[in-house]
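re: ur msg from earlier - yeah i can do the beta-D-galactopyranose complex, just paste it... oh wait u already did. ok heres what im feeding in:
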Amino acid sequence: MKKIIALVMALLVVALCGVATAEDAPKIGVAIYQFADNFMTLYRTELARYLTEDCGIPAENIVIMDGKNDQAEQTNQIDSFIADNVDVLIINLVQSSSAASVIQKADAAGIPVVFINREPVADDMALSENICYVGADARQSGTFQGEIVAETENKGDINGNGTVDYVMIMGDPENIDAQYRTEYSIKALTDAGLAVNKLFEQRGDWDQTKGQELAATALSQYGNDIDVIFCNNDAMALGAYQAIVDAGRVVGEDIYLLGVDCLDECKAMVEAGTMTGTVLNDHIGQSHTAADVALKAAAGEKMEKYYWVDYVKVTK
Ligand code: GAL
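and the outut:
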């Protein structure tokens, strides 16, 4: 009886994750744009945990490389994955514009590619049948940020001068996430019929220190004129929060602060009222989907072109 149960369990693992034993498990090459990124650290940690613990892939079959935010470095890493004959690639590009060359190389070697987090443009996504993108629609995250502001008691106009005067701290502007969050957060305000006024917009490249520096500059330049500081992600919002405190301002009383990702620190800040809101960027849903799709592709199954995971609005 025990043997039958064990067999059924093994078959279940095969059915769910596509692998049974260490010998026939696929080799997976994962290229992350930069390990020193808070959100992508959560993402890759969960990806590795899920693949090993839940899908039973031996750890030695999974190699995860740090692109160090350098496309040349990442290209070398992808070349070695291809030379090593991995069964599938999971790629978080440093530069989305490199997608075409990666797709051509992987296609020539017959290796499927699951792009994550940094969405290649539609023209590049059309280059091969053997690729897909797993991610979240950044328009949704921007819209949620704007809606959170529009839903405050003074509709974002905390200084009462008749317009929502805002500061925008952007991620890397080459990323569609940065472009869409910047655009759609403001669109949600204008769609709600609110008058907006952009005081300051600069790139902080998803980085906490840069977020702090930029917010400090904006606060010293525009002072009490600022109603809202929008940050394209939570890491930059954590930096901006420090600048807000240093400037003697109080979130929720004389300024609003928004991020995206829902890092644990930021979730706690939203609960405490020291951050107005954030948006959950579901690294668990995204990493699990990427892993499931990668295992199917490694087993020769055809992939859909896109797999979308929803964002979730986070307020007190
Ligand atoms: C975004 C995320 C940022 C950063 C970026 C990297 O989706 O919100 O925090 O990790 O991806 O491409």
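cool cool. Residues 1-14 have pLDDT under 50 and may be disordered. ping me if u need the other ligands too
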